[in-house]
Amino acid sequence: MTPSDPQAAYLAQFSETTGYLDFARYGPPSQAVVAASAAAMQSGATAGPGTVDDLMDATDRATRAAARLSGFATSSVTLIPNTSTGLFQAAFAIPPGPAVGEVLVSGGDFPANHYPLARAAQSGRIRLRVLAPPGGRMTPDVIAAELRPDTTAVSVSAVDFATGYRADLAGIRDVLGERLLIVDGIQGFGVTTQPWEVCDILVVGGQKWLRAGWGTGFLALSDRALEQVDPLLSGWTGAVDPTHYDGLIHPQAGGAARFSLTNLSPVDHAAFAAALELVESVGPAWIEQRIGERLDALHEALLPLGPTIRSSLDPAHRAGILSFALPDHQPAQLGKRLAAGGVTATVHASAVRLSVHATTTDAAIDAVTATIRGTW
């Protein structure tokens, strides 16, 4: 590859330590993201006429990039500071209707998906039913068997945080009819090719696989959702004529703008725009392919150690996560050994979770096996 190759340019943007294999927790940002953040902060430090308006242009830039990558109209996308905020807004936007509707969620899902729905249920806006699907996998068949006439919405993760299992979003969409499909996309957006446009409410944080840093994310809504939802958590910037200060509560704005709570950090938005545009420069399909190759290499390297693999290795249902356990090794013990050898991983109760990105090298994979064997 030549320096002008966009793929080589993409890889050259990152400088995480060799043994970093924890992208499912946090993705170290690129040089472009760091530079965009620094430039925006420096501009704010020397503020003059027009500085704030110029900085806020980054909001539109990031919104447009998120729309292009997700397949939603720009007017159907709004920026959020993190996934939990978007999920709370989604939970409190589900229309109660004449009778309180039911929302389904997997009991094995990440807690950020549970608490918003639980709080909405406590308020009486929805009824929550927590499922225990086989293997924790919310498949179309599992969901279809659980649907009731009063089921209003189903909440799923596009990629399971513990195992990396990738949900069949298109298949789930097909069985739901006019019910709302709420999707937490943080573990897959930008690094897997999925039909994001089938989601009714898509919530994505940018600090993991998008490598945009904390304080970044977006919320996207389908036409179906925009017709049905009634966002309770909507602030002054989500209203018509927000800067017309007349002391009155204004009607909600159109499109996804109605979900806006307040002005967010244009510094974070500059970083988010840079991260999204970097993904666009090579495309999610190339990143997905490279992650798949790295995942295969990691799996092959672990096989001689006799692991129990907790993750799906089916290309149709995997992302960038490989969770495993070893005989005669407690996960906590194994995690300490990996950390001592310079390998960054997440330790869960029954498995060690490794997560690779397009920038993961052979040396990173070698560090895992050498450390476990005690020779690193």
Name the descriptors.
376 residues; alpha/beta; globular; seven-stranded mixed beta sheet; 12 helices; four-stranded antiparallel beta sheet
Fold and architecture overview:
This protein is an alpha/beta fold. It is 38% helix and 13% strand. It contains 12 helices and 11 strands. It has helices spanning 6-11, 31-45, 51-70, 83-91, 111-122, 140-146, 169-176, 223-228, 266-282, 284-302, 331-340, 362-373; strands spanning 77-79, 102-106, 127-131, 151-157, 180-184, 201-205, 217-221, 308-309, 321-325, 346-347, 352-355. Helix 3 runs parallel beside helix 9 (266-282), helix 4 (83-91) packs parallel to helix 5 (111-122) and helix 6 packs parallel to helix 7 (169-176).
What is the succession of H and E elements?
A: HHHEHEHEHEHEEEHHHEEHEEH
In the sheet with the most strands, the strands line up as 1-7-6-5-4-2-3
Q: Which blocks of ≥5 consecutive residues have pLDDT under 50?
A: none
Average the pLDDT over all residues and give the rounded result: 95
Kindly estimate the percentage of residues that lie in beta strands according to DSSP: 5-15%
Helical amount: 25-40%
Rg value: 21 Å
How would the global form be characterised? Answer: globular
* Number of DSSP strand runs: 11
Helical segment count: 12
Largest sheet: 7 strands, mixed
User: What is the straight-line distance between the termini?
Assistant: 31 Å
- The SS-based structural class is alpha/beta
